[in-house]
Amino acid sequence: MGCGHKDDKASLASSQIASFSHQPHQAPSTPASKEVWKKGGRMFSILLAVHLALLACTLVSSGAFEKIAVHDYDVFFLLTVMMLIVIVWIIFYLAGTSRCPDAILCKDSHAGPVWLRGGLILFALFSLVMDVFKIGYYSSFYSCLSAIKIIYPIVQAIFVGVQTYFLWISAKDCVHVHLNVTRCGLMLTLTTNLAVWMSAVTDESVHKAHSKLKKNVTEEIFRWLLKVGMRSTSAEACNCNSQTCQIFKNGYFWLYPFNIEYSLFASAMVYVMWKNVGRFIDHHSHHIHHLKFRLFRRTFFVGIVLGLIILVSGLGVLILYEVQVNSSTESSKKSQALTMYYIFNIVCLGLMSLVCVGGSVIYRFDKRDMDRHKNPTRTLDVALLMGAALGQYAISYYSIVAIVASTPRDAISALNLTYALLMIAQHTFQNIFIIEGLHRQPPKEDHKHDSHQKDLYGLTFVNINAVSLRVPDSDSTLAPSTTPGTEVIHPSDLGRPLATPKKMNWRRKLLREISMFLLLSNIILWIMPAFGARPQFDNDTELNFYGDSMWPAIVDICLPFGIFYRMHAVASLLEVYIVS
Q1: Is 53 inside any structural domain?
Q2: What's this protein's family per the entry (predicted)?
Q3: Are residues 275 and 320 in the same domain?
Q4: Which of 115, 122, 126, 229 is the most exposed place for a label (fewest CB within 10 A)?
Q5: Beta-carbon count within 10 A of 13 CB
Q6: Phi and psi (nearest 5°) for 106?
Q7: Average pLDDT per block of 10 residues along the chain, 580 residues long
Q8: If 0-12 CB within 10 Å is exposed, 13-18 middle and 19+ buried, where does residue 67 land?
Q9: Is the domain of 307 the same as that of 372?
Q10: What is the 3-state secondary structure (H, E, C) of 282-341?
Q11: In this structure, is residue 293 part of a structural domain?
């Protein structure tokens, strides 16, 4: 399928690799890419992605306002077209590009680790269930809806399935044919995922705003508000009175967080693939570590047990919060729920901050080499951690300003201020711990020591009596006839190699405990805001200070980044756990 032009370049590259393999005495080097202008191909694909992203962002944001003549089915039409194009390109890649001779000369061992792909599959399954619920919901009153409302979830389900399969088998590819087409296809895929993410975040925010308004007004007033200016979906005008329709409606809105995380996970993996297009990897310097994930070995179980306690307690707090705040109109129950929420988060964030500081201190004693090799996956992980944390930083600083400048101050305001300060501290300390852990080399095997220790370590298992023939007594002195330059072996040296691994084990175990505790804690801190526990909307301090329009807009923009930060921190901490 048109592989000939690029095959010549690929064959030249492969011949260079072969020539290097016949020169064992020369320093290994990476063959230079034969692409004429690598940055030019990247720049063109970036420009394509920027224009499509701006177009999608314009439509999605315009559809959020009733006075602008852009409807949700216009957004769904654009997203449907983009997903269909991506599906066609993925089929072309799998059937054509990847099967060309010398198309994939090497693979990036750091890209697409199995736990990241496993998380992608988990989110993909929930996204498919969400699409099924959407199809059932819109099919309940298809006569008063545009056809695109039913076509969109069908195409999205196909898109999720095809893309998940594509990322599972191709995430590590370093493609060397159809370079510009592949770059543009990957950037189109990335932009489509981001556009779907923006649309899902907007729909979820509008749904929560409608739900909050419905609790305070009657059905007639609510429909009047929709007509005079509040944004509504085309499905709001249709009646959804049956029990089945309500189940479908509530079901797919509850599954929105999984679809949001799926889009972001897929975008990150696609970006790494885009960086690896045309890349050669020097396997002499690109270390490949075959690490085994052993959850219940070499641990004290303290981190797992404490993390599970935090996780279960957080689920209980979430259930009580949902019942008392979102399902009740009594101010006393709302105040109790907010107090309970803030106390739990203050305890959790305080423990996480202390644990992160302790982990950074342990790093100072663990004399392990730093990995300074080029790694696009790690670079992206660090950028996402730092960038996504800005969302929670923004919310926290806005809250601090509102609390300090507002009067009067009550107990909830004090708890809110403590919560905001600890949120900033915890994000900072956790980023330091994770980023340093990602840059550290995996521990060497216990039998890997210097040459002198290797000999001693092996001799202890051969025959201890034989060693005594070479080792003089501690009381005696070295005979004058000893050959100059011969190294004397003392009995005390025999225990050094055996004691060295034991000294290192306690550090590794503590780092594993810390990583597992932080992992479980981040899971509950992701679940709580993703499934409705959002005190930013229920606390009146910020709302009264910034106004009914500014504060919800700030939270709607920044909170999705904070939610994504937690899920990405879970994936990064799992990698730190395995490397420790």
Answers
A1: yes
A2: Belongs to the otopetrin family.
A3: no
A4: 229
A5: 21
A6: -155, 165
A7: 50 43 42 58 88 90 67 86 96 89 81 82 93 88 80 95 94 87 93 92 75 54 44 57 81 86 91 86 53 54 90 92 74 83 95 94 79 78 90 92 82 91 95 89 54 41 41 44 46 45 66 92 91 75 78 82 89 84
A8: exposed
A9: yes
A10: CCCCCCCCCCCCCCCCCCCCHHHHHHHHHHHHHHHHHHHHHHHHHCCCCHHHHHHHHHHH
A11: no
Q: Are residues 203 and 327 in the same domain?
A: no
Spell out a b/e string for 138-161, using b for 16 or more CB atoms within 10 Å of the CB, else e.
bebbeeebbebbbbbbebbbebbe
The confidence score (pLDDT) of residue 213 equals: 57
Q: Which two tokens stand for residue 528?
A: 């709580």
| Burial of 406 from C-beta contacts in 10 A (0-12 / 13-18 / 19+) | middle
* Contact criterion met (CB below 8 Å) for 156 and 258: no
Q: 107 forms bridges with which residues in the sheet?
A: 173
Q: How far apart are CA 134 and CA 147, in angstroms?
A: 13
Same domain, 209 and 91: yes
Angle between helix 148-170 and 179-216 (nearest 10): 130
Domain count across the chain: 2
CB neighbours of residue 17 within 10 Å: 16
Residues 109 and 171 reside in one and the same domain: yes
Residue 159 lies in a domain: yes
The DSSP-derived string for 397-431 is HHHHHHHHHSSS--HHHHHHHHHHHHHHHHHHHHH
Structural domain range at position 112: 38-225+241-279
What residues contact residue 308 under an 8 Å CB cut-off, 6+ apart?
520
**Distance from C-alpha of 199 to C-alpha of 197, rounded to nearest angstrom:** 5
Alpha helices in 22-113 (DSSP H): 38-62, 72-95
What span, in angstroms and rounded, lies between the C-alpha atoms of 49 and 185? 10
Which tokens belong to 52?
């499509």
Residue 273: which of 123, 388, 118, 380 has the closest Cα? 380
DSSP helix/strand/coil, 173: strand
Cα–chain-centroid distance for residue 96?
30
- 115 and 59 part of one domain: yes
pLDDT for position 9? 45
Q: Take residue 423 and report the two structure tokens written for it.
A: 């949120």
Q: State both tokens at 219.
A: 């059905």
- Asked if the structure places residue 495 within a domain, the reply is no
263 and 351 co-located in one domain: no
Are 376 and 111 in contact by the 8 Å Cβ rule? The answer is yes
Reading the block at residue 458, the tokens are 């092996």
